[in-house]
Amino acid sequence: MKQMISLHVQKRKLLVKIILLEVITLLLYALLMVVIHTKSLNIETLLQSDYLFSATANNLNEKNCYYLFDANIDFFVSPTDQTSLNADIVMQTENAEYTYTVFWNAKLLKENGIAVTKSLARKNGIKEGSVICSKHIVDDKIQEYIVEQILPDASNTITSRNSINDGIIIMGYDERYIDNISHKVLIFSEQDIEELSVDLQDVPVNIVYREDEIMILCKQALPYIGVWLLLSIISTLLVVFFIVEDIRYNYRRQIIIGIEKKTLIDSFNYVIRGLGLLFICTVFAISFIVLLTVGFNKIEIIVLVIISVINMITLEIAGKTARKWLWRN
Length: 329
Prior knowledge:
- The structure is a single chain.
- This protein is α+β, with helices and mostly antiparallel strands and 329 residues long.
- It folds into two domains: 11-44 and 216-328, no CATH class; 52-189, no CATH class.
- The chain contains seven helices and ten strands.
- It has helices at residues 11-48, 118-123, 175-180, 193-200, 210-256, 261-294, 298-328; strands spanning 53-57, 65-69, 75-76, 87-92, 113-117, 131-135, 142-151, 167-171, 183-189, 205-209.
- A ten-stranded mixed β-sheet has the order 3-6-7-5-8-4-2-9-1-10.
- A hairpin with a 6-residue loop joins strand 6 and strand 7.
- The longest helix has 47 residues, at 210-256.
- It starts with 10 loop residues before the first helix and ends with a helix.
- The mean pLDDT is 85.
């Protein structure tokens, strides 16, 4: 049985410091997780899709293609709203087949039906069965649309090359748009470019390979994950620093009066690991609960677990280094 002594930790003062650090850490985590959450959802959707590339063309394909209009189509949660939904708009074609090759594909929609991606729906309080409206570009009349499906999130670079939006709205086929508004066709292809060009009798442009898009999103997310990791390591080191500052005098006094080294080491480790693990586990638990409320995905959970494990390793290394420093000084 380990023999330990009291190092006279000033618990109230130390806990106040740790709690304040915890609050600051969680606030900074939240800012980083907003960006990481969006990127990771998009990466997960792309990983679950199976198309080779996306491209635009002038002619239709048999599968997984949408109309993109050369005009702004605005949707509003309410007819009285002044601000439209920040979304990319695409429209299903009349006869195309929509498969799970594109993970965020919607089922075939009615003319007054739409499908909305998850983040856009959550941000604006939209659910399946909700009714939102749009001013029809052809006749300028306010038309109501029923939300028939909530879809997985998809990267905005698929439907919009130059803007950052909250999500995608898919409209059911409406021939009035097709007959009156210039448009192009967005295609998600399992074929290579040469085969697709022959089938379409057209050369596709704006080609984005799915694997390239995954790499782009990973590169965009990595700096934020790196900052998250650095922040977590710094916060763990600060916890160790606060503890060492609190017990330094009493630890050295115990050395001077001849307390056995093993007893001192066990007592020091007990304090460092106890308070340090409490800090790490509390941050992990609160972060996990936040992810549950916003709709977590596997990538975020994996990153959170890895960072927590690295924090535990940091705690051990920092604790060992601090203990040696106290013994020598």
